[in-house]
Specification:
Chain lengths: ~325, ~625, ~190
Amino acid sequence: MLAAILALTDAACSGPGTMTSASGPGAHRISMLAVGMFAIAAFVFLVVICFLAYGLFHRRQDADDEAPNLEDHGGTRMVLLGGIAFPIVVLIVLFVITLVALQAQANEDTGTHVFTINVIAHRWWWEFQYPTQGIDTANEVHIPTGEPVLMEVTSTDVIHSFWVPRLQRKVDAIPGRTNEVTVQADTDGTYLGECSEFCGLQHAHMRFNVVAESSDAFNAWVADQQKAAPEPPPGEALQGQQVFLGSSCVYCHSITGTNASGTVGPNLTHVASRTMLASGTIPNTPDELAAWIENPQAIKPGTQMPASGLTPTQLRQLVAYLETLS
Amino acid sequence: MATATEERLEEIWGEEPGPVSWFTTGDHKRIGKRYIVTALIFFFLGGVEAALMRWQLAQPGATHLTPEQYDELFSMHGTTMIFLFITPLFTGLANYLVPLMVGTRDMAFPRLNAFSYWIFLGAGLFLYAGFAVGAAPNGGWFAYPPMTGPVFNPGINMDIWSLGLIFLSISTTAGAINLIVTIMKLRAPGMSLARMPLYVWAMFVTAWMMVLAMPPLTYANVLLQLDRNLGTHFFDATAGGDSLLWQHLFWLFGHPDVYIIFLPAVGIISTVIPTFARRPIVGYPYVALATVLTGIIAFGVWVHHMFATGLPSLGLTFFAAASMIITIPSGVQIFAWLATIIRGRRPVFTTPFLFAIGFIVVFVIGGVTGVMFASVPFDQGVTDSYFIVAHFHYVLFGGAVFPMFAGLHYWFPKITGRMYSETLGKWSFWLIFIGFNATFFPMHIMGLMGMPRRIYTYSPDLGVGGLNLLSSIGAAVVFVGAVLVAINAIKSLVAGPKADANPWGAATLEWATTSPPQHYGFASIPVVQGRDPLWEQPELASNLTLTDGREILGTTVTDADPEEAIHMPEGSILPLLTALGFAGVFVSLLVGAEVAAIVAGVITLAFIGAWTWRIGGVPA
Amino acid sequence: MSIAQVEPRGARAPGWWGMALFIVAELTLFGTALASYLFLRFEAPTWPPPGVEQPDIVLGAIATVLLVGSSIPMIIAERGIEKGSVARMRIGIVISILLAIGFLAIQGYEYSQASFSWRTDAYGSLFFTILSLHALHVIGAILIVSWLEVRSFAGHFDREHHAAVQTGALYWHFVDVVWLAIFTVLYISPRF
């Protein structure tokens, strides 16, 4: 029955969060541990079920005797062998593979990394700072494929947990503490990340994407992200910039190259380059963006972002501006 | 055809029928029944909460519930099932059974017993008042600060939760002390520790664990209250505090609590299986020892709830080892049950026996996934996903609710004097067994597919929609099965056939009393010569009738040699009044009325004074 | 807590066992409190935090002598009633209470002189919470033995019947002994 977990999981491995379709050394290790332990667990389960089935249905000589059997004092050896010796053997195996995996994990975290990314969890979005490259972005983190990157995880408010099921284990994001985890992807692709510690109303919508790409593509992305926002072309976009800078948006959001330097919400300098909005809640299209700005509470009830109160014209202009921030 | 002794005992121990004794009784049987019924009502409420969550999660992106409602539902579901259902239910069952199983007439402290029940009821209502005022607890059942602290959760929600749990801990601690003293001092002559029924061993260890595990929880909640309402900084990282302090304190309670829930259940299984396998349990000393060792090791494994918090790896290795070792005592118990079934007579497939077998099957699954969680890197992969939701429901629903159903069916004839319907019982077993596995087995897979726990909705792209639907259908089947148990109970209570004193031909002393037992329990205190008295001693009656007054027999701790007759108090209204006084204190603290809290405190002290006025001195 | 209505005859009364178990729970509570203190202490770079003075060890030592010393008259009270002397019991209890009140007075003075409060930082929170928790237990113990004193005037205790006195005294000794652990951790350990 337990082996069925694996079979069914494999059958369904198309999911973006399926741990067993691992794509990084961290997740491979967990996946291999899972396979090994499921095999052992299935064996233990079968042993118990066989004993149980035998006990329930084996033929008995005195089948009709209902008086309690007070003569038999045996059976202790079975308790000692099955209840002590058998588990000890199994546990030693489990403990050894655990130690091996734990050591590999520690070696990875203390080994060399190509660079460090600061992961800062907020209610309910993720900030990614690249101190070496001077980048501050949100909800979408790019890494070069095949290279180990060190993530230093913390939180500004409550406890969250940083998890990319197909790449690596969870680490909690705890205010006042910094936890480290090595992230490495074997193949190019976009990997789903999720918050996995309950953190309040929008714990369900606190996702992010890890984009692993060739080092050329990664370097190009870095170069783009390092640029300040371009001046918008005249017309709606330029009017939209005025709307942005003249409204309450600037208290929470930053756009490099403008006066907007709020740090409460995500940095929007390159917001149009991201595939998702509101921490993986909706796709980043002009229509969705407009709907989000108009009334975020309808899409993500409880989010820290208030409704903007803009007129339809202002909203259209603002979206036109934000779409230039690629 | 009552004898003169029985008439005299009824005169001493009997209670006036009617509403007065309802509020004053100290009879362990009435209090035990009360605990059981109240806990089952909370079980129903927790089940409704679960059903609503499964309704929301049946499809991706559903909007039946708001995020706030969903958070309140899972917080109260966990809090209810752990604090208001399973622990009080097992406390109630022990309240009813332990005095009978050890062959005495009541618990050591009948008034304290009544008091414990009233506090439990009050704390339960207190915790549920959150729904009435639209501010139910919403921080999850382990309530990690700073999310539950003053900054990020300023409402009254978590004050209700933490004050409610402090309030409840009075009941749990008092009840546990009562059980321990009853088991240590009131066992029938001859019932040395080595002859104690395994259920009594289980409750003895459980009660000790309650005494030692409640203080860390209570202290953590006091600190949370101080942080929330008096401006202290225990969990505030900006002023030298640390939110991990909460996690250590909470799990220092929380992991032992898993065994506080589980050990009474194994006590039930160790009682039910020998009865229907028709032989004494195999390996009695090993099972008793395993129970004690479980209780001890359980205090050394709490950090495995914190493997993802970034602790140093030496500590992780130690707690991984401890978490693996604790499976050995469970292994001993499982093989003792298996050996008992194998070497017993042809088993009698009654409803309690079926639930016991179902328990072994599901508990082994929960156990093997539990060992996996001891493997740190695996834990760091799957913790806080639906895999762990699956695991702990296999352990808690499988490990405690199946045995509870086994126990409730098994002792139904003793408690009510009526037989339940085996046909309905078997239907409910199969519905619950199949529904349970349909509900929780898919959750293992959902977790491995990346579904985090405690999310109020999920996106279709995760690919877990079908599994969630299956899980929700399973939950509906469990619900029907549980309702069938209730129907069976009510139907049998009204029209079930009358039960004999010992309908199962069981071995333990409670079956020596009438069904249901008289107020005085035993007409003469039995003198025990073995572990299975009703199988070994056809004639139990002794000359220890203790008819001079409201008296029970005190015996020595290890050998149960008779020591003295202990005079027992009559019923009293004071336990209820004292509990009301405590309720006044906690309600005042909740609404921030300091003066009212002090007044209520002084009134409570006055009641305690009246209660203790004649205790431990010259008899009145 | 309550004490069962028993007639003590040689063996420890169930009420005494009940109190002993209650004390086990209380010891766990104080153990948890002190463990919390040490947990946060070993995470902090300096302890006490900068700008906060060490607790006054001389005053603390005097308070310790008063409180631990109060166990002696309490033992005299117990021995007294065991020999049937209600008078000795009454005097012993009164002296114990006076010593405990002296202890509380010193504590109150220390509170009022402190340069920090429970709101200052986690150190202040720990210090005041643990001391207040213990002070509440001292007050509780005073109430218990005062109640015994009152009951003695109602003629409740004699040579044969005094389980309540033994039980109350047990609690008294617990409150004194647990103070030694608190004094060691809160007053002495930060100096090392």
